[in-house]
Design goal:
Layout lengths: L1 E10 L11 E2 L18 E2 L42 H15 L1 E4 L7 E4 L5 E6 L10 E6 L14 E5 L4 E11 L2 E11 L26 H6 L6 E5 L29 E4 L12 H12 L2 E6 L4 E4 L24 E3 L8 E3 L30 E11 L2
Parallel strand pairs: 4-14, 5-8, 6-10, 11-13
Antiparallel strand pairs: 1-17, 2-3, 2-7, 4-15, 6-7, 8-9, 9-10, 11-14, 12-13, 12-16
Length: about 400
């Protein structure tokens, strides 16, 4: 994923969740766990939110993260939605991408593993290494990372930690553990009782959405029901900025039929799914696409990709018996019986050509120190973010 933004830093502050730790503007190396205390300057700390201890190892089942009822991903499409006047043209880019490289779920490669932490989990200072991290934060302090956590082994190195004691989600891009010290090209965090969107961007996705937004969970396929919109990526993501609810974009396509990040795509709700020869998992997904749709949240190297939670998140293979084995090379399961030509693009808002990208203090956060003056009220041309 490649991005160019005009970054307006009206207030640079930690987007890290309350009670978790500190984000530093320094180049100090990440510290190995266990992390007992830290006293950096300048920095931000937040009042702790401690709930009942929830301990345990790598789970045998996964607890889905759905965010708040107000999240765009939890909104059903009304019975008579407005269709974008350019819908038929934009669907051509979906058809082209599906013909060239398929429509599929990524299952065990290029997707996101989730790990749960609690008050007993070792905490690390995670060093952020992207060239542009120095404009925002170079260290995320006190991140609770279980001993068994590991990122997806592909180049994206995606990984999410959910702290059960604070309802905080940590998202990482290109995470790695080197000799007991964690680092990532980029990371950020938000509360899982919010909407699952980084309101001023700087997410570990191209669009400002949290990594778990729109993911497919094993129990949803097992139970035959998905009650939220799905996140998708494809190869013709439109340049020029996102549309709401996305808050940033890595779109680069200048094609006339390209779709901007934030767009919601719906499968024709009048289709009788029983006539399409769908597999059980295809039918579950198709029903969700009729009721909630799929929201464009990332740029991809080809094909229309939906995302399942990585099976390395839990003990065993939670998709056994509900999905066929993924392609050994690419890690995906094809969806050949869902008719891409029956998609429609719901009415788009205006693209935001230069969204305001910044780390922001969250409501209720407590500032322990003032911000350094050189980080306040500063506007700068930001170098391209490269997130593959």
């Amino acid at each position: 994923m490649n991005k160019k933004h005009l970054i307006v830093l009206t207030l640079i502050a930690s987007a890290i969740c309350a009670g978790i730790g500190i984000v530093q503007w320094s180049d100090s190396a990440a510290q190995a766990h266990p992390l007992q205390s830290a006293t950096p300057t300048p920095s931000l700390t937040f009042l702790p939110i401690i709930r009942a201890d929830q301990s345990g190892g790598k789970p045998t089942t996964l607890t889905p993260i759905y965010y708040s009822a107000e999240s765009p991903f939890n909104q059903k499409i009304p019975s008579n939605p407005q269709i974008d006047p350019n819908s038929a043209t934009m669907v051509q880019s979906l058809l082209r991408d599906a013909r060239n490289q398929g429509y599929y779920i990524v299952v065990d490669k290029w997707t996101v593993p989730i790990y749960y932490s609690d008050a007993n989990t070792p905490r690390y200072n995670v060093r952020l290494t992207a060239d542009w991290a120095r404009w925002f934060a170079t260290t995320m302090n006190g991140v609770p990372i279980p001993d068994w956590a590991a990122p997806d082994p592909q180049d994206d190195g995606s990984m999410t930690i959910v702290d059960l004691t604070t309802n905080c989600e940590y998202d990482f891009w290109q995470a790695k553990n080197q000799n007991g010290q964690w680092q990532a090209s980029w990371g950020n965090s938000l509360k899982i009782d919010g909407q699952g969107i980084f309101l001023k961007g700087l997410s570990a996705r191209g669009s400002g959405f949290a990594l778990l937004a729109g993911m497919i969970w094993p129990d949803e396929l097992r139970n035959g029901r998905i009650d939220h919109a799905l996140l998708f990526s494809y190869n013709y993501t439109k340049s020029g900025g996102p549309v709401s609810p996305a808050t940033e974009s890595d779109g680069e396509s200048l094609s006339a039929d390209a779709i901007p990040e934030g767009a919601r795509i719906q499968l024709d709700p009048t289709l009788n799914l029983d006539t399409l020869n769908l597999t059980p998992y295809e039918k579950t997904i198709a029903k969700a696409l009729q009721e909630y749709g799929m929201i464009l949240g990332d740029n991809s190297g080809g094909g229309i990709s939906l995302y399942a939670v990585h099976p390395m998140s839990a003990q065993g293979n939670l998709y056994e018996g509900i999905l066929p084995p993924p392609d050994p090379m690419d890690g995906f399961v094809l969806l050949p019986n869902i008719p891409v030509d029956k998609f429609r693009v719901l009415l788009l808002g205006s693209q935001i050509p230069d969204p305001e990208i910044a780390l922001s203090v969250m409501p209720g956060d407590f500032l322990a120190w003032p911000l350094p003056t050189h980080l306040n009220n500063r506007a700068t041309e930001h170098p391209a973010q490269s997130r593959v």
